[in-house]
Amino acid sequence: MESNNAKVIENAEGQRTTPSVVAFTDDGQRLVGVPAKRQAVTNPEHTIFASKRLIGRRFDDDATQKDLKTLPYKVVRAGNGDAWVEAKGQQYSPQQIGAYVLMKMKETAESYLGNPIKEAVVTVPAYFNDSQRQATKDAGKIANLEVKRIINEPTAAALAFGQDKTDGKVIAVYDLGGGTFDISILEISGGVFEVKATNVHTHLGG
């Protein structure tokens, strides 16, 4: 916060958004964010993106099987039946991939603020189920972050636009993301945001 206004911290590349992309290179490097995205065309089989589609999901889920047909990297069945990814001969849970992204964000914030970051609030799609929300919390734990709260992305968007100053309203929040398009209907009452309904097209975005 600066002068009571939220400030989006720029990453090392000078950008205010960091792609949720993790890549594993031939020389043993692990790239996260912009550097990972830049080399995706030449290293598609070992560049992990859209891991949010897999987090908290079983390998045999219909949604997982549908995504297998379009993802260029390898998705495997873990010992517990969950969907994991494989790169350079190593298997990673989606939580671990998410943790690498959170670590990158943690480092960015610490570099800017000059202080260690130990806590975080993480947003998730409104349609995430309990398993997916818990898996997101687990990603935070792997990244050495105490996740204070998991909040719905449309709620975060409404807060960002000052909708918390209004009361007794029903609003619609559209989210056209990198890979999904969803709409949520929120009711604001007494400063509490309640998601009344949500719908999503999981393969429309960009």
From TrEMBL:
Q: Which GO terms fall under molecular function for this chain's record?
A: ATP binding; ATP-dependent protein folding chaperone
Q: Domain of life here?
A: Eukaryota
State if ATP-binding is listed as a keyword.
yes
Under Gene3D superfamilies, the record lists:
3.30.30.30, 3.30.420.40
UniProt feature coiled coil, ranges? none
SUPFAM superfamilies in alphabetical order: Actin-like ATPase domain
* Name used for this protein in its record: Heat shock protein 70
| InterPro entries with a match to the protein in the record | ATPase_NBD, Heat_shock_70_CS, Hsp_70_fam
Q: What keyword terms does UniProt attach to this protein?
A: ATP-binding, Nucleotide-binding
The record's annotation in Pfam families points to:
HSP70 (PF00012)
